[in-house]
Amino acid sequence: MDIVQFDPNDTALVDAIKKIPAFNPLTGPLLNEVMKTVTIRDYDKREAIINQGELDQCMFFLMKGKLSVQVDGIEVGVLDKPNAVFGEMGIVDSSPRSASVLARRPARCLALDISFFDELEGRAKLAVQAFFYKMFYEILVKRLREANERIADLDMQKAVMENMEI
After folding, report:
1. Calculated CA dihedral for residues 142, 77, 20, 54, nearest 10 degrees
2. Which of 46, 41, 45, 73 minimizes the C-alpha distance to 58?
3. Angle, helices 28-35/122-164, rounded to nearest 10 degrees
4. 72: Cα within 13 Å, side-chain hemisphere
5. How far apart are CA 13 and CA 15, in angstroms?
6. CA 73, 79, 83, 86: dihedral to nearest 10 degrees?
7. DSSP bridge partners of 100
8. Tally of structural domains, the chain
9. What angle do CA 24, 2, 78 make, to 5 degrees?
10. Domain range enclosing 44
């Protein structure tokens, strides 16, 4: 893995980050505070980004590539859309990683270390926390909606199969 610290003078990188919808509400000093904790990480094919069972304080945004989400070595999902967010669940509840994420092909991710929350004070801390809570809320609502749709599809498939057995 290659790690590059965020450079506010790197206009291509700044533009790429601005394309991530989660960062749209951030401007000025608040954006600068958050960007201090950002690294860009390049991963080789089959390299682990997150390991199931580990604890850490990073969440990730896929910039390019294709990732495999695995639980106990079995693929349960694929991330291939730019700006896909992953690794946020362990941050919300401080639990060990529930899945591993590996690069299916070379990938670039923006990593955000949220341990910097502890260093912030006053209004800046409240503003950053509010931003992240809103972002987590939106991510979790989207995932819940997708899970509900999958459950409804499975229920429909089950009903069709039960009717075929008659």
Report:
1. 100
2. 41
3. 70
4. 0
5. 5
6. -30
7. 70
8. 1
9. 60
10. 2-164
Residue owning tokens 């919808």:
21
pLDDT in tens, 43-98: 999 999 999 999 988 999 999 999 999 999 999 999 999 999 999 887 777 889 99
Give the pLDDT confidence score for residue 166 in this predicted structure: 58
Provide the CATH number for the domain around residue 77.
Answer: 2.60.120.10
**Residue appearing with tokens 């989207």:** 142
Q: Which helix (H) or strand (E) holds 69?
A: strand 67-71
Contact 69, 101 (CB under 8 A): yes
Residue 4 has pLDDT above 70, yes or no: yes
69-to-98, 104, 115 alpha-carbon distances in Å: 10, 10, 24
